[in-house]
Please model this.
Amino acid sequence: MDGEGRALAPDSRSFLSLLRRLFVPSRPDTGPRPAPEPASSRTGRRQASAESGPEGQSRGSVGDSGRLSDVLRVQALTVSLLTKKVAADQLFRHVLDGASDCLAADEASLMLFEDDDLRVVAVSGGQQSLGPWREPVRLGEGVAGLVAQTGTPILLNEGDDLTRFPNLTPKGGRIRSAVSVPLEVGGRVVGVLNANRLVGGAPFTQEDLAVLRLFAGTAALAIDQTSLLQRTQARSRALEALLGVTEAFAAGLEPIPALAGLTPRLGTVFHPSQILAFLGTGPDTPLAAVAGWTPAAGAGAGEALRESRLLPTAEIEQAFLRQEPTWLDGLPVEGLPEGWVVPRRVLVVPVAPPDTPSRCALALAWDEPRFVLPSEDVRVLDGLGRQIALALSRQDRASVAGALEAQIAEARTHLVEVERLATMGQSMAGLVHDINAPLAALTTFAQLIQKDSREPQSRERAGQVLEAARRAHRLVKELLTMARPQPPSFEAVDLNTLLRSAMELQRPQCSVSGYRLTADLAPDLPRVTADPHRLGQVFTNLLVNARQAMDAAEKGRAITVRTRRQGDTVVVGMEDDGPGIPPALRAKIFDWFFTTKPPGEGTGLGLAISREILVAHGGNLRVEDNPGGGATFVLELPLSEPVIEPAPA
Model:
């Protein structure tokens, strides 16, 4: 950072030297690795660095062999964490220690996104408590907020102009030099890594910034994978807990104590501000409050709601008729205790149709007026409501218990499968990193050969190597994008380009199996407004399904992808000449968890998720039989208004 606060780009030759030494060590490491250096030793070396000169050459230079050894050691350990199940606090501590070790920093802090704000999740050095760091940092505010917003690293030294950073609180002259770098995964910023040297120490250099960026790339992958695994495990535990409550219904508990036991578990899983459970004994009887929960009072809040009733307004009756969770602007309740106010954002989960002997309603309320529960959580509540409806039915207790046990066993099987898939995704991220590292080295050396070689043939061959490495890097990037859940992002999409990308990803495996993968794409196809990541997921899933079906049946040789415009709709057809789909299975293939594959080879989620994505885009996904054999999956997407014409070729 210069005196005007401009970000400084690392010197390309110095950074190339660093890459060479990282990927091409001068000699094999045959001796034992040194133990991590204690913080006191690092402090002593920083002081010696400050005394040696203003730029701290003894420690601040990439050329120092001790520092290179530290960088390589920390990088190796961080890569190893990609394939291990490491607790979040343990990983955060390693990231901070690694950053401090590589840069000889006095302090380090790690900030991750929570909703739209950055929050400090771990600190090291002089500040060991998170107390002073509890306040969130908004995107674009302060140094870290600007780094997260722009994705650009920043280096600041004492005396630099700080006025361009909104809402920046000065640290009282205690910091000599500071660096902040974004933590990026697949082009998505997930957090910010900061390091400081205090007054009396040497300032950071451009090479320090390059080293921290290199380390942050690997650290971001490890943090993202740990977060993904934690979310999956948390969802598994939540589903298991809810299924356990359903077992209590099936075991014969009366509805009121069963519902009272359900509300605290719902509070732990979905974090609402209030939960109310209502129960009626017949179609014409009012729904009385029988259980309640708040974060402060817990399940004891239900005692105060004994005189409360859910009013049968038109919205409530429609929710029961539709038999699906419904968002309401407030909850129509009478008889609430004095001082009890239900938040305006309420999700009502109806249990059992209106004409059943017993019916129930669960109401979850949040203080945030625009709060939106993720769709998968709404489905969990919907499924729970249906299971409670079964338990409330008194017509056949034995059949109810048997059906619930079968559903619980199936749900547990799928929980194990979800855990397995999460672990596979974690391992794949580590593999992608291992592939990217040699690809980066290969690209660098090919560029050097192109630049330095005097032989035309060598430069031509180096260009071919460079192009192959770039294509491999694009494929690896696509794999990593598929493995990461992406937030919905609608934009103008060229379906032909998106289909070609999905086909290129599957072409190597089709070639191995001897299948022809061809495209018949309309050249004048208009663009549509869609989420390219989710549509790419649908296209890839359908191509994989077609290839696997032909592999399993040993029938078929070709997969053809076609696009055309049909009125106000764009139609995509994926046709194969494989075994086709039997009529008895055609009505079930889009059902959740339905699969014809052997156990362990299919989850029954691909087609269900694909149809849901198409429906969310206002389109549809259906299947047709081919007259000559095989099947065609037809995707229909509406054209946006106005029509977005195709980009010129």
Observations:
- Residues 78 and 219 are 6 Å apart (CA to CA).
- The longest strand covers residues 175-185.
